Every structure is written in structure tokens, then in C-alpha cells.
Amino acid sequence: MSLVTQAREMADELVRLRRALHQExxxxxxxxxxxxxxxxxxxxxxxxxxxxxxxxxxxxxxxxHGDGAVLLRADMxxxxxxxxxxxxxxxxxxxxxxxxxxxxxxxxxxxAAHLLAAQREKLHGNVVFMFQPGxxxxxxxxxxxxxxxxxAAGRRPDATYALHVFSTLGPAGTFFxxxxxxxxxxxxxxxTVRGEGGHGSTPHLAxxxxxxxxxxxxxxxxxxxxxFDVFDPVVLTIGVLRAGTRSNIIPATATFEATIRTFSVxxxxxxxxVALRLVSGIADAHGVDVDADYxxxxxxxxxxxxxxxxxREVITETLGENRYAPLANxxxxxxxxxxxxxxxxxxxxxxxxxxxxxxxxxxxxxxxPQAVFDDSVLPDGAALYAELARRRLNVNSGATSGATTQKGx
Length: 409
Known about the structure:
This protein is α/β, with parallel strands linked by helices. The protein folds into two domains: about 5-180 and about 300-395, Aminopeptidase (3-Layer(aba) Sandwich); about 185-295, Alpha-Beta Plaits, CATH 3.30.70.360. The protein has helices spanning about 5-10, 10-25, 30-40, 100-115, 140-145, 210-225, 265-285, 305-320, 335-345, 380-395; strands spanning about 45-50, 60-65, 70-75, 125-130, 160-165, 175, 180-185, 185-195, 200, 235-245, 250, 255-260, 290-295, 300-305, 325, 345-350. A hairpin with a 6-residue loop joins strand 1 (about 45-50) and strand 2 (about 60-65). It is elongated, with a radius of gyration of 24 Å.
């Protein structure tokens, strides 16, 4: 019986687990209820399980025959968002929601652990299951790496894979990926302009930071379009803008925060220099002070060409030619799986989970309070995780059953 058939027989269990996780979402690095559910779902399997010290991670190692290793990752954390979907399994936790589909990822990786455990005697190596908290800006991958997840099997993995569902990327059940840059690098720019407060009726007696801040915002947008190659783009969005308490009071300070996305090391370096120079120059021109902090976030998510080719091969051979679609361009979102990919060659794979009958152009996107994901993708996601591990271990061992030979490194 194929892994796909076995996974589809587990569909009801995977849906139950996913919906239980959905009803009790947890944010950040500390996910005790989520960790408890994952551990319960893995109970009885022949796994070597460790949990995190500085986060509620779960690392499980399945040992086969041979010293090869593959790492499969699923993120588990939710978002600080109030759910507004109307689902009968909606979040029971105020201010928290699985609006990015991490509950599906977790259920799929649990399913993969069950599938591969049943084939343990046939595995040509070891599989590391990385259940990660804190993906949504909490550096969960780095925390797990610092605690040794990459060496959990005794040595570094030969390859790593992660799946991520999307509520608008359709049709449901279609997998998407690309070699090279798959997601953007991220950074945050925080700027505080320090002037001198005063009465709104006599601005000449104060140093108003508000128009200075407004000029900075406009200048940054212009810089992005005039100083960077359109084919190596930069995305800069102001998400926070704060100043003042009343209409007739000139505040002493004004603040903004921006998220910045880039797709190359060169653009990442240049936008930092451009942004800091620009805000400093505008402040000097107006005779006010400025505090500017540029915080590097995640690096770009870069897929290894060989691992991406293998992923495409596995998807088309296992699920059908129509189940894979190459991405023409990278996503502008950022992912801390990028940190794993900096150490281990691998592939980040997107999975469309658009609900039946929904219009992909109108459906709520990931992170929306109205984001809804189709549970029907769970079995095939679990099967793909498992089949990727099995075939990659075959490649590493030289076995050819059910796999083609990947070119050497």
C-alpha cells in the first residue's frame, strides 16, 4: 500500500488533530498545550523524543538503517489575531488564531511520523521531525538550532524540507516551489524624530517632528523606486506611525516603524545604508535629532536546486503531474526556515489550501482574521513529507527503488 493511500486512510485522525490545535492556538515560543497534543499524538511510536529548554519545541528522531538523515520541519505557533471565520471549530482563545495554517503543518508532520514509523525497517537512514514554536517573529528555528536540533540524529541532515499552506494559493492540493530564492529577507526600520514640543498655533516657536517624519516616509518610498533595480526589488511598508496626543499640541517626538523585504544580499545591504542616510539627512536639514535602528530579520529562504528538483519529482510521480506548479517569482513573505536552509540543503514547498468554491482573488490571505484553510490537503501533505524523507534517504544510500538518482554534491 502506498504512503498516499495510507495517509488518506488517516484523514479523519489528521482533521481531528488539526481542529483541536486550531481551537487552542498559542503564540510565541511557549506553547504548552500544543506541545502536549503533539507528544500525545506521537505516543507509542518508536521515536527518540526531546523537548526544548528555552521553548516548547518537540524533536523526534526515527532511526532506520544507515547513517543518512533527513529533517522535516513543521511550525506550531499561532498569531495574535482575533479569529473572525465563523467556523464551528473556531479559536477558543481570545486574541489568538491559527491564521497562517501552522495547525495544518503540525498535523501533517504528525501524520508523516506515523507513516514512516510503520516503514522503519525499510528506511535507509534516520528522520528528524522538527516541531517548531515561535516562527512568527520569535526566532523559533534559531532557538531550536541553538539547542541542537540539527545534530539530533548524531550528525547534520543531508537534506531538509518544510511545507506551508496558503489560504488563497489554489487550487487546493497543488504544490508550488522554485529553486533559488523562494521567500524574501526581512528587516525592520524603527525611527524616532526628536524635536521640541509647543502650541499648535505657534509652530515657529517649536521644532515640529511631525512634518519631518512625513517627509522621511515619502522619501523612503521614493528611494525604493528610484535607487533600486526593478528586477531586484525592495518592498518597504510603514506599519506603525505615532505622534501627538491632541490636535493643538505639537509633540516633542514622532515615531514610525517599517518592514523591509529584499531578495538579494546586495539589496539588503544597500537599503540599510540608504534608509539610515536618508533619515539622518532629513533630520539634519530640519534641525532636529533622530534615533534610527535598522534590525536585520530573517535571511532570504533559498531552495537548493537539487532538492527542489527531487521535491518536484516526488510530487508529480506520487500525486500526479497536475499537482505541481513552479513559482514564477518568490513570495515577499519571510520564513525562519531560511535559517535551517543556510545550514542544510533543502526545499520550502507551498501548498494551496483554498476552500472549495472560494475565489482565490477574493479569499482572505494568510494572517487575516477571516483566513480559512481546506482540511482536505492534510493527507497528501503528510504523505509528501514522508515520501520526501524516504526517497531522499534512498538517494543518499544509493538505493533506487521508487526514486531516481539525484546528482551528487
